[in-house]
Structures are given as C-alpha cells and as structure tokens.
Amino acid sequence: MGSNFSTARTRTLVSLFAFLFLGLLKIIVGHVFLSPILIADGIHNMADVIMMLAAYLGLYLVSLHPSTNFPYGLYKGESLVSLFMGIAIVYAAFEIAVTGFVHLRPTDLLPLLVVEFISIAVSIYLGHWISGLMTSNSSVIKAERLHNYEDGILGIIVIAGIFMEWAGYIYLAYLCLVIIIVYLVFQSYGIMRDAVLSLLDASDKAVVLTISKVMNQISGIIGFHELKVRKAGPFYFVEMHLEMPHSLPVDRADAMTDYIEETLKEKVKGVVSVTIHVEPGSMSKKWILAFPVSEDGNISSHFGQAPGLLILNTHDGNYTRHDNPAADAERHKAQMIIDMLKKLGVNAVIAQGMDETAVLALSGAGIDVYITDIKTPQEAYEAFKEGKLKRYVA
Fold it and tell me: What is the pTM of this model?
C-alpha cells in the first residue's frame, strides 16, 4: 500500500509539471494569436497545477503511519486537501468568467489547434497512466484520474470554441466558455461535497451494505447491530456490536472477532480497522438450535439417548432431522453429540432434561442450554424467541 502511494506521488508530480507547461503554453499562444478561449483553458490548467500540489500533499499525509499524537493517522488530511482542490477549481471558473468573454478574432487558427490537440493527448495519456493506480480508495487519486480524462473531453469543446472564434460566431464561442465554466463548477461541487462528508464522518451507505452482506455470510454468530463506518481519506474504520452465544468462552469469542476483522479487511476494500464489542445474543436474531427428539417428533426427556436431533436455523426457518450418533453408544455420549453439533454450527440446545456433566460439556463448547417442559420444538422455539426460556447453568 505504501509503495502504491509513493508511485502515486511521483506520477502526480509528473502531471503537475505537464499541466504547468500546457497552461503557460496556452496562455502565451492565446495572447499571441488572440484566442480568449485558449487563454481560459490555460487558466484552467494553472488551476490544475494547484490541484496537483494539493494532491501531492494529500498523498503524502495518507502515507504517514499512525503515531502517538495521531493514533488514527493523518488520513483525514486527504479529505481536507480535496476540499481545497475543489475551491481551486471554483477560482479557475471565476477567472475564466472574468477574462474569457472578450470579443476577439484569432489571427491564426493552426497554432491554436496544435496546442489544444497536444493538450488533449497529454490529458488522456495521464488519465490512463494514473488509472493503473486504482488499487486504493483514495479520493485524491480518483479525482486526479477522472479530472485528466475529463480534460481531454473538455479539450474538444475548446477546439469547437476556437473554430467559433475564427469563424466570427462570437456568441457560440461564448457558449463554449459557459459550458467550460459550468463543468468546472459541477466538478468542484462533487469534490467538495465528498470532502466535507468525509470530514464530518458521514456514513458510507454502500460500504455499510457491503459489510452487512459479508457479516450475514459468517456462521457461528447470532447477529450484529450498531454497525458504524467512518471514512478517513482512502480508508474505512468499522465499529459494531457482535452477538454471540452466552456460553461462548472468551478465547473463542476473541478468535471469532479476529476472524471477522481479517475477513472484512480481505473482502471490503479500504478497511484498516475493525472494533468489535461482543455481547450475549438476542433471542430474536440468527440462531441454530438443536432439539433432542423422540420418534413422535416431540422433545425427548433424555438428551443423550434421544433417537434424533432436530436442527432449526432461525434465519431461514428450516428444520432438519439428524440421527443421534450417541443413541446406541455406551460411553462418551455427550462428546459424540457435541462434536456433531459443532459441525452443524449449533448455538443452543433446548431439551426437557440434561445432567450437569452434559451441560458443562456443552457450555465448554460455547453452546447454550435451555431446559423446558414444552413438548413440541415449534412451541419451544416460540417461547425461546420471546425470551421465556431460562438458560440453564450447571
């Protein structure tokens, strides 16, 4: 990541000097051959130079590591720089409006067209060159890339305006100037809006949705809530409350949070920090419940000797029945059942009876135990969901 931003800074400096050269060339040629539109485009390029300086500073701040004084890094500096970039574009639009509406007719057409065609070619090349850096969420890199491509398109309007000046259609030339000004104002609005939203810690709804989809695919958790995402420069800081089974040991809860952090960093581009608060799961969230059942489908009064185990995934409401692997075993019944329950991702067992040894074994595996006198699994689940069942602790 650091080398990517280092390369970005190098290419930004190259772009800076390229636009400085083009801006000066357009202003000089525009004055010599009397083309207000080319002069206006040159002023636009000088604003680009200010943008590149700001972009370089923003990329430098992003590359700095967090420190004691700035434990979250200086990533917000990029957003602050982007805000000044937008202001610079507004100033360029103002300068064009002040200097561009002059009734002049170019003395020679060819030099004006050659300069503008060179500018278009350079802008498109720089946009393509910078596009190779789109491996981060840097708003500066994205704005720089987009701006270079748009400069190439804008150059076509400038060429049209030069022809209008040459042909004496001055009001059509003015129209081209107006298009350039409107384009610059619109572009600056987008850059400044994104920068201000980032500085104010506005939530990125698209990233929140992506994280939610990833979390819903992770098994072994009851649910999550209070998901918050804040953007700092090209990076995202994530906070959430994670709901887990009550009996889950601390080391397994810690392992799960580490797994979630690694998964989010891998699947959601730009995530650099995930803060998770673990709490007992709500009964109405996503549980996988196991019911020891007798042949008639009712909850059995014997956990280890029940002929079957009915598994309910509360997320989709599906019930599946499995034969009890310990039904005919003489020893280690509880462990055999627990091994199967863990493979199935079970979070809790609802039974009519269970000895303390089995309860301790299940709790040690992070599986909650609820004892009830309700006969049917469906009614027991409704009572569980309403919080009417009490967790059994040996």
Answer: 0.64
